Each structure stands twice: as structure tokens, then as C-alpha cells.
Amino acid sequence: MANTLVVSVINNTVWFAITFYVYLQTRSVFATGVISGIFLVMTALTGVWFGSLVDRHAKKTMMQLSALVSLVLYAAALAVYRAVPEESFTDPASVALWTMIVLLMFGVIAGNIRTIALPTLVTALIEEGSRDRANGLVGSTSGVSFLVTSVFSGLLVAFGGMFWVLVLALTALAAGVLHLAAVRMPERPAALGMPVPVGAEPSAKSAPEHAVDLRGTIRLVREVPGLMALIAFSAFNNFLGGVFMALIDAYGLSLVSVQVWGLLWGVLSTGLIFGGLLVARTGLSRNPVRVLLLVNLVLWTVTLLFPLRSSIILLAVGMYAYMLLVPYAEAAEQTILQKVVPYERQGRVFGFAQSVEQAASPLTAFLISPIAQFVFIPLMTDGGAGARTIGDWFGTGADRGLALVFMLTGVIGLIATTLALRSHPYRRLSRRISSGPATGAATAASPRP
Hints:
By secondary structure, the chain is mainly α.
């Protein structure tokens, strides 16, 4: 987890920094939306493949490969950045700018291999009754990553552009690769003195070593009552969540400077830390499916309320509540998959879930940024129909156009989550979680390593 924390800090710093840098250089909401779209498209396309790599190869090997690929791509991006005059990066259509963006995004995406590998290691190393709490600690690690990331990225971009961001990335990734090489990591349940589940052998027909086996993964997901519906619901949530990825930085930077925005994200990220620690302390109850949906009700309510006024304080309070609850939602979904999916297939299923859940977000990111730029912002600026109709109490200006998009997103999310709570797939999956046998590698009866 410590090694993953360092690498996650670096990848997230690069992600935050390039988004900040492009907006500050070009002042284009459209450009930042396209960046989000590229990231989410590649995340969706690579999830199943990355999951199959995690299942077919040693977890440690794949984590090392992930860091090495990121290292090479970041080095190439630094070469582009130093070879081109800085003023060329002020043009949103600059070839050099988009070359650097694509190299950095691919480097960040390579880090997703670790995202898939880590919950499978939780299954192998932790008894079933404690996995929800372990997932909470993983969430806290993500929170620490975002805290450090937010502070570093804003300050580094403000005082040195992308140069010091990339120098730091190369140095830390090289150190991470060397450190992990010295870490001993059991790769299979049998190595921990635990029985290997039936069908977990490399030769099992259900998990061929030479193939991604998308068809078999889909069949496995469909065999668990309500699991496909849960993944579809998460995909719809990510469809709406694409609005955040595309617009939240532009909205925040319209209210405060990049230094303040970066520091504020550092404070907000403590919500992920405390939320993860709360999960580790309290667990998720016997029905993590219900916890997941109830948390989503609160999250979409927050999305509806924080844009009511053009206030950085209201935004900060709303986003902190959002951050505090996100670890509950993430831990709930991970716990569900760890319980109902056999260990030998978890990499593929986690990758499949990532691909499906992220598939909708690129559409949102690509669509919402031009819609916000050319429809909602003009709608709420002086002379626009929205400004004339509700401007007296809602306010006018570009930030009010973005706020209107957030509020409409919150309303749609509340309706969808309410329907999901009343659905048959929700009840079927809840019964499966409550009554079904554990399928993970570690059990309560297994000895601790």
C-alpha cells in the first residue's frame, strides 16, 4: 500500500497538473473536457485487458510493468515539453500540446493496472469478514494520494509549469520501481497456507491463460443475480460523474486562483482519508448493496445543493461531504465483487466492471464541455434567456452556467438512484450477498500468514 501510495500520488499529480496547465494556458473549457474524455475512453477500453493481465501474470510483475510504462511515457512528454517554445502551448489546437497531453494520459492510464490488482490482493490476504474494512483503508490511501496531489500539482504548475511536475514524476517512479523489487509478495492463496479455490488453477477452462476471455467474464457476471444490474447502475452514475471530471476544475478556477484551488483540493482530500478510516472502523453492515445506493442518494443531493450560490465556501462544504462518502460507495462495490466472484477471475471482473462503468463517462466528458461552453454559459450570461429568467436570484455569468449543469445532473442522479432502490435486481443481489457462500481466497477459518 505504501508503494502504491507513492505511485498513485505521482500519477494523480500528473493528471491534476495537465488539466490545470491546459486550462490556464488556453482558458478553454472545451480543451479540459476533451482531456477528460481521452482519459476515460482509454480507461474503458483497457479495463478488461488489464484485468486479464492481472489474472494471468504475477501481481507484482504487473505492478512493476505499470510503473515502468508510465516512466517511459512521462520521459517522452518531458522531451516534448522542453523541445517546443512555451508560447505554443497557449493554442488549444497546438499539435505539440496534444502530443504531450496524450503521452501523459497514457502514462496515467498505465497506472490503472495497480487499481485492478490491489482489490484482488485484498481478497487473497484478508479474511472475508474483514475485507470491507480493508477496502476502507485502501480508500484512505487514495485520500492521502489526492491530498498530496492537490497541494503539489497546483503549486508546481503555478511556479514551474509542467517541468517540475515531470521531473518529480520520473524521480519518484524510479524509486517506486526499485522499492517494489525488494518487496516479497505472495501471489496465490496457496502461498499463504490457504486452499486454492476450485477452478483457480492456471489450466482451468473458465480462465484460459492465453486469452482475455471477455465472453467467459460476461457469463460469470450474468450468473450472479443482480450483479450485471449493479455494474450498469455504476456505469450510469459514471455517466453523470463525467460532468464533474469535465467541469469541476473550470468551475473552481472561475472562483479562486490555481494556488488556492490546489490547496483547497488538498483539504477536501482529507474527506477521502477520514471516510476510508470510518469504513475501516465501522464496516459496511450485512448489506453493502443497500449502503451503496443510500450513499448515492446523499451524493446526488449534494450535487444538487452546492451550486445554488456562486460561493467557494458552499462548494467546499458540498465537496467535502461528497469526498467523505465516496469511500463508502467504493468499498461497498469492491466488497460485493470480492464476495460473489471467484478469486481466479477477480482481475477480469474488476477490469470488466471498470470498463463498463467508465464507458459512459467519455460520452459525457466529450458532450458536456461543448454544451456547457456554447449553450449553458451563454444561457446564463448577460442577455441570455436563463439570465433574464432566473438571473435575479440564481446569478449570472459563466460560473452560473456551469452551476446549472451540476444541478440538473443532481436531479437526474436522485431519480435514477430512487428507482434502483425499488428494483428487483437490487433485492436479488441483496439476498445473494446475505445468504451466499464466500468465494474469496481467504476465509475466517484460514490461518493468518
